[in-house]
Amino acid sequence: MKSAILLLIVVTAGIIFTSEIMHSNGSPGGYTGSPLDSRNCTQCHYGTAASRDSLISSDIPESGYIPGQTYSVSVKLDDSNMNACGFELTSETHFDKVGKFENITDQNTQTLNSGRSITHTYLSNSPTNGSKTWKVDWVAPAQYTGQVHFYVACNAANGNASSTGDQIYLSNYTVEEGQLTGIDQQKAPPLSIYYNPGNRSIKILNIPNSKSKASAQVFSINGAPVKSVADVNQHATIDASDLNAGVYIITVIQNNHVFSQKVSVN
Fold first, then answer.
1. What CATH number matches the domain at 182-265, 3.40.720.10, 2.60.40.3080, 3.40.50.720, 2.60.40.420?
2. What's the pLDDT score for residue 156?
3. Residue 44 and residue 187: Cα distance in Å, rounded?
4. Secondary structure letter of residue 178 according to DSSP
5. Residues 6+ apart with CB under 8 A from 161
6. How much is the average pLDDT of 232-250?
7. CB within 8 Å of 188: residues ≥ 6 apart
8. 3-class secondary structure, 218
9. Which stretches of 79-163 are assigned E, i.e. beta strand?
10. How far apart are CA 55 and CA 57, in angstroms?
11. Which residue has the higher pLDDT, 18 or 163?
12. What number is the average pLDDT over the span 168-194?
C-alpha cells in the first residue's frame, strides 16, 4: 500500500511538473478569459486572476480599423516578482472570433486556432528586469464587423517548475471600425449601393472623387469573401449573375474610409 501511495505522489508531481514545462512553451489555446473562451490561465496555474488595464496596445488609429489591413498589436507585462511569463491573446466580437494573428519571427510567438489567437513560445517566456513585451501582427477582418474586442491572459510565473504561486493578469482592449468622416460626407452625396434585378448587377453610386481609386468587396452574410473589384470609379457595377439568391455585404474602401451595406440578391 505504501508503494502505491508513493507511486501516486510521484505520478501526481510528474503531471504538475510536466504541465508547467508544457505550458511554458505556449498556451494550449482557449485560455484568454474572453467571453467566448470563458477560461483563463488559472485553469492550469494555481494563482489568482486580477484585472489590469493597458496590457494591450496597437497602432490602430482612433478612427478605426480598415477591413483587411494589417496592424501591430503589443502585449506588455510588468511584474517585478516574475521569473517566467507567458500570454495568450485573441480578438472577437460578441458572436465570433474575428481577424487573424500573424507571428513575427523574432518575437518567438506562435498562432493557435488558424490564427484566431496567439501565444508565447519557450524562447520568449523570460522577462527582463521584471518586464516582457510581445509584438505581433493582426490582420483586420475582411468584413465590416463593428467593434472588435481584444482579450489577453498573462501569467507572471515564479518559475518554481510547478503550477503553483503564479499571478494571472487579465485585460481587454476595444477598437472601432473605420467610418466616413462628417467632413467627407458633406463634400459628396451619400454613397448608394443597390441590386438591379433587371441585369442581375450590384450598383455602387456616388463614390467620392479622389486621386485614390476605391475598391469594392462582396461578402456572404457569414463574412466569407465572394468577390472583389479593384480600382472602381465614382460609379461602379458589379456583376451578380454568378451569385446565389441571398443577402450579401458590400464594402467599399477608399483610403482610410469605409462604407458597408447589406444587399439582397434574387
1. 2.60.40.3080
2. 92
3. 56
4. P
5. 17, 20, 21
6. 86
7. 206, 208, 209
8. strand
9. 84-92, 100-102, 109-112, 117-120, 131-139, 148-157
10. 7
11. 163
12. 69
The whole-number average pLDDT for the span 148-157 is 94
pLDDT at residue 160, as a whole number: 78
Q: What is the chain's length?
A: 266
- What's the pTM value of the predicted model, to 2 decimals? 0.62
pLDDT the model gives residue 71: 94
Nearest one of 176, 140, 137, 152 to 53, comparing CA atoms: 152
Q: What is the grid cell recorded at 65?
A: 480599423
- Give the pLDDT of residue 178: 77
Judging by DSSP bridges, how do beta strands 84-92 and 117-120 pair with one another?
Answer: antiparallel
Instruction: Compute the mean pLDDT over every residue in the chain, rounded to the nearest whole number.
Output: 80
What is the homologous superfamily of the domain 2-175 according to CATH? Answer: Uncharacterised protein PF12988, DUF3872 (2.60.40.2410)
Cα 107 from Cα 45, distance rounded (Å): 24
SS3 category, 32: coil
The residue whose grid cell reads 478569459 is 33
